[in-house]
Design goal:
alpha/beta; about 425 residues; single chain; 7-stranded mixed β-sheet; 5-stranded mixed β-sheet; Aspartate Aminotransferase, domain 2; binds pyridoxal-5'-phosphate
Length: about 425
């Protein structure tokens, strides 16, 4: 059989039951696993043979979902984590030690900005933010011999900037460092960053992958193509004392990145997913393709409606619109499985002409769309980033991340689009 298409992989990849086994992915709600001999278990601890020891490190339910996500992204291996935040943290800790630095676009999720700027800097790992729309030569000047990777979001939350993955992948590779992409908003249905040269992908599975706002989770996927044995990443090439001198790059080849992350970071930081949450993500993934089609077509209609209301809305940010400056990049990177451009996910940002007060009044008047600290699930919702998710950012960071005080982030769900638009119309009338 030829390579399966994404919507088929969403349903069929991962758990594949044998004869007489449960048809649906079972939840292995067990912390531990039984072995017949202590020698066998000892081999597991020495990483000499694969197998589950303890759910902090790996678990069968999670592993099946990791296999599905890995197949969707086209990677060499995947590791689920307790949250999107911990997925990003795992990438940084897998590549950097105190004294190292990395480059990140400033146009990213607010929680990731604080993780990088506040917590990681406390550990002696420095983030150097860049403007992804600035000339590449300026960004390149930030790279030195301690730079370990470059980071950006396919479609940025909430500025919706589209990251030029190919360009930044070649910049990273010119300097022998990997490119890591947060693909949360695009999902593998709309974009597979590895196809454009990215080396590592992270997701907050909390968003479209789950799709129902029922669990918090994350995942890291490695393409298996980056050479971590190039001398810049000593923890991949030096013997690891905590596993009897194992050398990750030698022993695990294409799986080196994920194996090191799992056996060191999961073991020591315990940023593990729960099997039940993995089950929920798997359930969500089964309908990812259908939902993304609907999120996109709904968002296109809602964005066009917003555009038609120039009387009250001063700006509409939606890369799916021809009028949006990111439209060309969106058309390059975001395509469904038939190669069609259907939009840039369900998230739209708008600026109300009346500024902060008008934004708050508009949001409070919505009936169908609920005010929640969440995006990218089945239900239409709204959020005011400046006073909520991005509250911790300074005004300068807010401006650099493309967030004005009157900006409203609208997450278009999968309801009937006419109902969503009718709700917006009545709220705008107020
Ligand atoms: C939500 C989000 C995160 C953080 O994920 P959690 O699951 O909430 O920890 C990271 N990146 C992006 C783009 C997000 O939208």
């Amino acid at each position: 059989m030829s390579e399966l298409r994404i919507s088929t992989k969403c349903v069929q990849e991962g758990y594949k039951p044998g004869n007489g086994e449960p048809r649906v992915l079972p939840i292995y709600q067990s912390t531990t696993f039984k072995y017949d001999s202590s020698a066998h278990l000892g081999d597991l601890f020495d990483l000499k043979s694969p197998g589950h020891m303890y759910t902090r490190i790996s678990n069968p339910t999670c592993e099946f979902v990791e296999e599905k996500i890995n197949a969707l992204e086209g990677g060499a291996g995947a590791m689920m984590t307790s949250s999107g935040q911990s997925a990003v943290f795992a990438v940084v800790m897998n590549l950097c030690r105190a004294g190292d630095n990395f480059l990140s676009s400033i146009s990213i999720y607010g929680g990731t900005v604080t993780l990088m700027a506040a917590e990681l800097s406390r550990m002696g790992i420095e983030v150097r933010f860049f403007d992804q729309n600035a000339p590449l030569s300026e960004t390149e000047k930030l790279i030195d011999d301690k730079t370990r990777f470059i980071y950006g979001e396919t479609v940025a939350n909430p500025a919706l900037d589209v990251f030029d993955i190919e360009t930044y992948a070649s910049l990273a590779h010119r300097h022998d460092i990997p490119l890591c992409i947060d693909n949360t908003f695009a999902t593998p249905y709309l974009c597979r960053p590895f196809e454009f040269g990215a080396d590592i992908v992270v997701h907050s599975t909390t968003k479209y992958m789950d799709g129902h706002a029922s669990q918090i989770g994350g995942v890291v996927i490695d393409s298996g193509k980056f050479n971590y044995a190039n001398g810049k990443f000593p923890e991949f090439t030096e013997p690891n004392a905590s596993y009897h001198g194992v050398v990750f790059a030698e022993q695990f080849g294409k799986q080196a990145f994920i194996t090191k992350a799992r056996t060191l970071l999961m073991r020591d930081f315990g940023i593990s997913p729960s099997p039940f949450n993995a089950y929920l993500v798997n359930m969500g993934l089964e309908t990812l393709a259908l939902r993304m089609e609907r999120h996109c077509s709904n968002a296109m209609k809602v964005a066009r409606y917003f555009e038609s209301r120039k009387d009250v809305i001063s700006k509409v940010f939606y890369p799916g619109l021809d009028s949006d400056p990111r439209n060309a990049l969106a058309k390059k990177y975001l395509r469904n499985e038939n190669g069609e451009f259907i939009g840039s996910c369900g998230v739209i940002s708008i600026e109300l002409a009346g500024g902060r007060e008008a934004a708050v009044r508009f949001m409070d008047s919505l009936r169908l769309a609920a005010i929640v600290v969440h995006v990218a699930d089945a239900r239409t919702s709204v959020l005011h980033p400046a006073s909520t998710t991005h509250r911790q950012l300074t005004d300068e960071q807010l401006t650099r991340a493309g967030i004005s005080p009157g900006l409203v982030r609208f997450s278009v769900g999968i309801e009937n689009p006419d109902d969503i638009i009718a709700d917006i119309a009545q709220a705008l009338a107020k």
